[in-house]
Amino acid sequence: MLIFYLLGFALTSNMAAGSGSIRAMTIDLIPKAGRGETYGRFMSVVSMGMAIGPFLGGFLADAVSYAAPFHLCSGLGIVSLVALLPMRHVERQSEPPFRSTTSNRIKLLTKPFFILLFIRLLFMFNLSFQRGTLPIFLHESQSLRVSETGIGFYLGLMFFTSALSQLFLGALTDKVGSKKLMVFGLSMSGLGYLTLIYLSEVTPLYLLGIFQGVFFASAEISMMIYLMTIIPEGSTGRAMGVYGLFEDLGGIVASAFLGIIYDGLGPIFSILSVSTALICNAGLSAFLLNKGDPLVQEFYQSKSNSQNE
Fold first, then answer.
1. Is 107 left (phi over 0), alpha (psi -120 to 50) or beta?
2. Strands (E), the chain
3. Phi/psi at 57 (5° precision)
4. Torsion of CA 135, 48, 122, 242, to 10 degrees
5. I need a surface site. Which of 69, 123, 190, 276 has the fewest CB within 10 A?
6. pLDDT confidence of 136, banded at 50, 70, 90?
7. End-to-end CA distance of the chain
8. Which domain holds residue 227?
9. What is the CATH number of the domain that holds 146?
10. Within a domain: residue 197?
11. How much is the pLDDT for 308?
């Protein structure tokens, strides 16, 4: 178990080290007009890898050994490093700032930003449940008894659906706003988890994975796009650093809480806990968040009017 803990620490440390800078650079490079569609395409490509990984890992664990996925990840890590080293970031020509007169007066630590940080912290209950508690529940459930391959297929199906849905969800945020999709994704994810209590066959579980992929993508992509609309220019690095910090805090709290609930009260209460957290999160998003940065919304509206003309 000590080696397993060290592997988990190494994995999460590696993810945390790169996620903040990658996200900040992504935000800087994405154009302001139609950013939802562009970011949706980008995340769709990222999610494709997440869709293939769980299925491949589960298959290798069943067919070869439990060590085989680790060996594969080591090789892919080296390949990724070789591809990363020659990359050079070329600064793009800055677009005419549509809010240059007010950017300097806008502070990063605003009320919408703090609310979104707390929403993201609670959302980590969903991610912690998916990555840790859910596979254990599926394997130990007396009515399901899902194999490692089945668990990998379920997670892969969920991520694959998420990847496909992000292609159109990003564009949808440009039309209806990120807040509506955030409320929809959070509430439906919470309600979807409740159906796990009543499942007794694997086929409905896979259908649930398809729907959960859409709900998960809706909440995930809308949070990031909403964040893009409320942070001032030149603050993406700091914003993503704080955003990542709250993700880490939420992951620590959620993992410990869900583990204690699972062992102490049983898997049903663990499912109820994550479902309650997501539904409460949807309520916070609906009643406490505004529609985003009004300056950005004004920019989008002017772009849309010019395109219509």
1. beta
2. none
3. -65, -45
4. 130
5. 276
6. confident
7. 64
8. 2-86+108-301
9. 1.20.1250.20
10. yes
11. 52
